[in-house]
């Protein structure tokens, strides 16, 4: 089956074109129907810029320099802005960390979701539109949806607002849902409920989901595969179960080791010594070298190439190369 989303060589820069900051650098990934791919990394690694590039919603100082983004076979990077508007909120929808920034404070729930319904289902008539809004609110687990239609965003709790955002995202019957830290702003109990909801909605609609997170607990609960991002590049990809058993990149190992056993959810990843390189930093060798406990001389001088070990399992590190695929792949891998 052809993937819903196929991204290849996506490269995005920000700022002054004569001294640009490369925020996404040659990113390649794909996601199939019914699959959740988690994009994991600390903040400042380029995760959100990846999402905004896919949606073509970059800030004015940003531009996509190279690559290809195909949604069900359609190249998005060459669409006109008018065509892209039909895709956004239609076949491809996005939910954000802070639902209040995406909801209009002066419009009722019914009006906002109704607008999304109208935009992507052209000829839905007025009466039918309300029915559809109620149906969407019910699908995202909002109790007594008929009673909530005339409420405004400020009358809803954080969890309810996120549910309304998800309902809006579903209005256009998307095939791909991009969720950027969808539960980070919520308290732990509500987080779990929203994650459950996302899982259920994904299964019901057989969606492809790109889940952006800094939280390994969220990855473990929600994703099938993950891609670890560092300084604008993917440094490791793996099925989630493989990753937890045997992370290959030193950065991945750091992420896992920095998790206290008792509480895997809700921990920030910033406990790793050192910082993500600043935007626009220049690199001669490996981007992780300043923080890597395994670094050798070669790491400063030579860029580690991306190596595919088996399908769906890749890593960008000189040491993974020298130890070779035979030992780098988990021996019990059933695939
Ligand atoms: Fe560490 Fe070297 Fe591998 Fe980079 S290439 S992650 S510095 S061992
Ligand atoms: Mg972010």
Describe the fold and architecture:
- The structure is a single chain.
- Helix 5 crosses helix 7 (158-170).
- With 335 residues, the chain is of the alpha/beta class.
- It is built from 13 helices and twelve strands.
- It is globular.
- The model is unreliable at 322-335 (pLDDT under 50).
- It has two domains: 5-91 and 174-328, P-loop containing nucleotide triphosphate hydrolases (Rossmann fold), CATH 3.40.50; 106-171.
- It has helices spanning 47-55, 81-87, 99-102, 109-120, 126-139, 145-148, 158-170, 188-205, 216-222, 240-245, 250-257, 297-301, 318-328, and strands spanning 5-14, 21-31, 36-40, 62-71, 74-75, 92-95, 176-180, 208-213, 225-230, 233-239, 307-310, 313-315.
- An eight-stranded mixed beta sheet has the order 6-7-8-3-9-10-12-11, with helices on both faces. Strands 2-1-4-5 form a four-stranded antiparallel beta sheet, covered by helices on one side.
- The two termini are 17 Å apart.
- The chain binds iron/sulfur cluster (SF4) and magnesium ion (MG).
- Residues 249-250, 286, 288-289, 292, 294-295, 299, 304, 317-319 line the site of iron/sulfur cluster.
- Iron/sulfur cluster binds at residues 249-250, 286, 288-289, 292, 294-295, 299, 304, 317-319.
């Amino acid at each position: 089956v052809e993937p819903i989303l196929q991204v290849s060589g996506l490269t995005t820069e920000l700022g002054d074109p004569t001294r640009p900051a490369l925020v996404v650098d040659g990113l390649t990934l794909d996601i199939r129907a019914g699959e959740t791919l988690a994009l994991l990394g600390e903040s400042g690694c380029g995760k959100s810029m990846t999402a905004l590039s896919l949606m073509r919603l970059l800030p004015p100082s940003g531009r996509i320099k190279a690559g290809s983004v195909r949604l069900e076979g359609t190249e998005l990077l060459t669409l006109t802005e008018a065509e892209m508007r039909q895709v956004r909120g239609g076949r491809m929808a996005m939910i954000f960390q802070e639902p209040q920034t995406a909801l209009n404070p002066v419009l009722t729930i019914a009006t906002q979701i109704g607008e999304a319904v109208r935009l992507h289902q052209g000829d839905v008539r007025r009466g039918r539109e309300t029915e559809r809004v109620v149906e969407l609110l019910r699908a995202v687990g909002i109790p007594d949806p008929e009673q909530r239609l005339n409420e405004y965003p400020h009358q809803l709790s954080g969890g309810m607002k996120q549910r309304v955002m998800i309902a809006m995202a579903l209005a256009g019957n998307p095939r791909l849902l991009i969720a950027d830290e969808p539960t980070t702003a919520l308290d732990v109990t509500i987080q779990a409920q929203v994650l459950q909801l996302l899982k259920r909605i994904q299964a019901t609609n057989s969606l492809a989901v790109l889940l952006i997170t800094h939280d390994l607990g969220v990855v473990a609960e929600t994703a099938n595969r993950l891609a670890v991002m560092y300084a604008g590049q993917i440094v490791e990809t793996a099925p989630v179960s493989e990753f937890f058993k045997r992370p290959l990149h030193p950065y991945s190992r750091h992420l896992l080791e920095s998790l206290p056993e008792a509480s895997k959810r809700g921990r920030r990843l910033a406990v790793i010594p050192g910082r993500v390189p600043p935007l626009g930093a220049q690199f001669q060798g490996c981007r992780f070298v300043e923080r890597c406990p395994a670094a050798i001389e070669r790491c400063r001088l030579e860029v580690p190439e991306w190596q595919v070990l088996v399908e769906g399992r890749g890593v960008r590190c000189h040491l993974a190369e020298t130890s070779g695929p035979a030992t780098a792949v988990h021996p019990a891998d059933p695939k």
